[in-house]
Amino acid sequence: MTGPDTRSSQDRKPVRFLVLSASLRADSLNGRLARRAAETIEANGGEVDFRSMPDFEAPSYNADVQDETGFPPGADRFRECVQTADAFVISSPEYNASMPGELKNSIDWVSRFRPQPFNEKHGLLLSASPSMAGGNRGLWALRVPFEHLGARIYPDMFSLAQAHRAFDADGRIANDQLQERFDHNVVGFMDLVEASKHYPCVRTAWVEYLGERPDPATDRVE
Ligand SMILES: Cc1cc2nc3c(=O)[nH]c(=O)nc-3n(C[C@H](O)[C@H](O)[C@H](O)COP(=O)(O)O)c2cc1C
Predict the structure, then answer these.
(1) For 19, 62, 132, 163, which has the most beta carbons within 10 A of its beta carbon?
(2) What are 98-138's pLDDT values in tens digits?
């Protein structure tokens, strides 16, 4: 398998990752996969801010509520976590071949802050499900709002099939080959984020131009 280089973690410059388990459930399979991602990141020299969906709970988005009372505390926490991280990793359940409503609602709230926090953030999407598809269809749906908001979603996504049977007693992915593939995916993402943060010559302008004139009422990028 070709892929990320094998620099030791001492060679790596500090990069901070928000790792979010996007499930409200206490014994969440995505919580377990998100923990694995956090461990892999830390083992490879990254810093982790670990969160789960209850940290960001917010009422259904309503522009009237926003106008009258401002942003709910959960949405403001999510904004702050996104803004203070260099990149985010989300492990999300698949609900009816899409993302859970709670996650979409939180993305919608955060998208109303200016400057818009997801713009130009790198993101890695993971999923875990008891099904054979591992929740992968939900991740394709989740790409849509993030890419719309200017987030740079890593091309390789990782979906853990039959996740209810996939972990060993220590919380590792029991199948060594799969665990290795997972680490490879996460470290590849870390390399890209590090390069983007510390070696700005590799930065590219990533702007969608649909022909509209600049207008504060419609702009998603400040
Ligand atoms: C409303 C609902 C819809 C679901 N739809 C899907 C689905 O489309 N595909 C799938 O693989 N699993 C589906 N599931 C099962 C979830 O993958 C499973 O409950 C999983 O454990 C949720 O993730 P969590 O353990 O991190 O909470 C659904 C579950 C619920 C409650």
Answers:
(1) 19
(2) 999 999 999 999 999 999 999 999 999 999 999 999 999 99
Phi, psi of 6 (to 5 degrees): -110, 35
Ligand 1: which atom is nearest the Cα of residue 22? 26
4 pLDDT more than 60: no
Among the residues of 56-206, which ranges form H helices?
A: 63-69, 73-84, 101-110, 136-148, 176-198
Q: Say whether the peptide bond before residue 117 is cis (omega within 30 degrees of 0).
A: no
pLDDT, position 10 = 62
Q: With CA atoms as reference, report the closest residue to 57 among 89, 19, 80, 23.
A: 23
- Residue 24 Cα to ligand 1 middle (Å): 12
The beta-strand segments (E) located in the chain are 16-21, 47-52, 87-91, 122-128, 152-153, 158-160
- Ligand 1: distance of its center to the CA of 167 in Å? 17
CA of 135 to the centre of ligand 1 (A): 8
Centre of ligand 1 to C-alpha 199, Å, is 39
Strand 87-91 with 16-21, pairing: parallel
Per the document, the length of the chain is: 222
User: Are 90 and 126 in contact, with CB atoms under 8 Å apart?
Assistant: yes
Asked if residues 80 and 49 have their Cβ atoms less than 8 Å apart, the reply is no
CA Rg value for the chain? 17
